[in-house]
């Protein structure tokens, strides 16, 4: 009898019913609890196991599983919905929340591979996949995985340098997650992901990093200024090059235009001179033809001789104007002799060259007055001989 009393005293806390409410009311009141604590909310997140009173008619909320024991042995795992449990025989030993949850990992002191002291904190996201392993695989699976996450994080940080940790968080998260996944499988947990939330180096290291960052910013500023100056110089030189190219092309076009204009001017002047020569030659030819025709008329030869004698006399007058010394023939003062001599020369010339001169004039090969004068002088010398 005493043994029976002790047994009932041991199981009484688990089978305690609330006398103020009915079984159905208490069954529906099982919705009021937090994810990790007991009923009513505000429970300790590390409390394990999470239990629930047997109300005969029990309701399993969505996202939860109930582990029912019969006489202290696993009897069934109830999914969400309604189920009936026998009072004093069946007990709801574990309430397993299979929803994903986040476990805060407090800052942990660690030393990197390059001997830098840092404090690292993170968040672990887990989910119960096997309620049986969660209930019987560890005394407190959530606490166990949290402690293992802390040691794994310190170990992973020791394998990396500070720069790798600061710039390679994804790699660090993957290392920690891989190590935790293997260790938490016997506890019925699935490691969804691990996120490093904060990395705090030592104070001296932070000061050195701040100086390094300031120096890097100064270096980048100098590089940007140098690149800007270089780009400006390139643009200026490019502008000068384009300006000189345009100027040289303009000068080339100007020279070509001036040369073309000079060429055109010379051609036009040459054509004008040629035309003037042609016109002058034509006028001279016409004049000579007219003279020849006049000479062939009666009295024409005498008129020519008279004109030649007049020019002969005028020549001596012009010579007197230009020089004080004049060479005369043997009778310079005898005008009659001069006229007679001139008329005789003209007569001889007229007799000898009338036909020849006429022929040359008509063919355009007539000589100038100077040549005629030379022939006249030659004829006079022949006559004097």
UniProtKB/TrEMBL annotation:
<feature type="compositionally biased region" description="Low complexity">
    <location>
        <begin position="364"/>
        <end position="373"/>
    </location>
</feature>
<keyword id="KW-0496">Mitochondrion</keyword>
<dbReference type="Pfam" id="PF01145">
    <property type="entry name" value="Band_7"/>
</dbReference>
<dbReference type="InterPro" id="IPR001972">
    <property type="entry name" value="Stomatin_HflK_fam"/>
</dbReference>
<dbReference type="InterPro" id="IPR050710">
    <property type="entry name" value="Band7/mec-2_domain"/>
</dbReference>
<dbReference type="GO" id="GO:0007005">
    <property type="term" value="P:mitochondrion organization"/>
</dbReference>
<dbReference type="GO" id="GO:0098552">
    <property type="term" value="C:side of membrane"/>
</dbReference>
<dbReference type="GO" id="GO:0005739">
    <property type="term" value="C:mitochondrion"/>
</dbReference>
<dbReference type="InterPro" id="IPR001107">
    <property type="entry name" value="Band_7"/>
</dbReference>
<dbReference type="GO" id="GO:0005886">
    <property type="term" value="C:plasma membrane"/>
</dbReference>
<feature type="domain" description="Band 7">
    <location>
        <begin position="55"/>
        <end position="213"/>
    </location>
</feature>
<protein>
    <recommendedName>
        <fullName>Band 7 domain-containing protein</fullName>
    </recommendedName>
</protein>
<dbReference type="InterPro" id="IPR032435">
    <property type="entry name" value="STML2-like_C"/>
</dbReference>
<comment type="similarity">
    <text>Belongs to the band 7/mec-2 family.</text>
</comment>
<dbReference type="InterPro" id="IPR036013">
    <property type="entry name" value="Band_7/SPFH_dom_sf"/>
</dbReference>
<dbReference type="Pfam" id="PF16200">
    <property type="entry name" value="Band_7_C"/>
</dbReference>
<feature type="region of interest" description="Disordered">
    <location>
        <begin position="364"/>
        <end position="385"/>
    </location>
</feature>
């Amino acid at each position: 009898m005493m043994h029976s009393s002790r047994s009932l005293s041991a199981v009484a806390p688990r089978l305690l019913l609330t006398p103020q409410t009915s079984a159905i009311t208490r069954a529906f009141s099982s919705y009021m609890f937090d994810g990790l604590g007991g009923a009513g909310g505000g429970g300790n997140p590390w409390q394990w196991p999470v239990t629930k009173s047997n109300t005969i008619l029990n309701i399993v909320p969505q996202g939860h599983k109930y582990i029912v024991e019969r006489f202290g042995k696993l009897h069934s795992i109830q999914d969400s919905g309604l189920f009936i449990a026998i009072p004093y025989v069946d007990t709801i030993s574990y309430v397993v929340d299979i929803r994903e949850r986040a476990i805060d990992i407090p800052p942990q002191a660690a030393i990197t591979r390059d001997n830098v002291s840092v404090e690292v904190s993170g968040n672990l996201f887990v989910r119960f996949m096997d309620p049986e392993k969660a209930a019987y695989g560890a005394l407190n699976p959530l606490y166990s995985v949290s402690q293992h996450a802390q040691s794994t994080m310190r170990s992973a940080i020791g394998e990396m340098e500070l720069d790798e940790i600061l710039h390679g968080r994804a790699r660090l998260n993957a290392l920690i997650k891989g190590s935790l996944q293997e260790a938490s499988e016997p506890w019925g947990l699935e490691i969804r992901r691990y996120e490093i939330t904060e990395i705090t180096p030592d104070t001296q290291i932070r000061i050195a990093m701040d100086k390094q960052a300031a120096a890097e910013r100064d270096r980048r500023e100098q590089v940007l200024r140098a690149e800007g100056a270089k780009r400006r110089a390139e643009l200026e030189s490019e502008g000068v090059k384009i300006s000189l190219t345009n100027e040289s092309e303009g000068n080339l076009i100007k020279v070509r235009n001036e040369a073309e204009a000079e060429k055109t001017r010379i051609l036009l002047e040459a054509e004008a001179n040629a035309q003037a020569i042609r016109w002058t030659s034509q006028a001279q030819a016409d004049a000579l033809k007219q003279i020849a025709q006049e000479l062939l008329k009666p009295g024409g030869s005498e008129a020519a001789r008279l004109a030649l004698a007049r020019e002969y006399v005028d020549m001596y007058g012009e010579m007197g104007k230009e020089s004080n010394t004049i060479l005369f023939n043997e009778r310079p003062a005898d005008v009659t002799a001069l006229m007679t001599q001139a008329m005789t020369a003209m007569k001889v010339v007229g007799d000898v060259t009338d036909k020849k001169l006429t022929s040359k004039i008509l063919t355009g090969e007539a000589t100038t007055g100077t040549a005629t004068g030379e022939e006249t002088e030659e004829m006079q010398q022949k006559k004097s001989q």
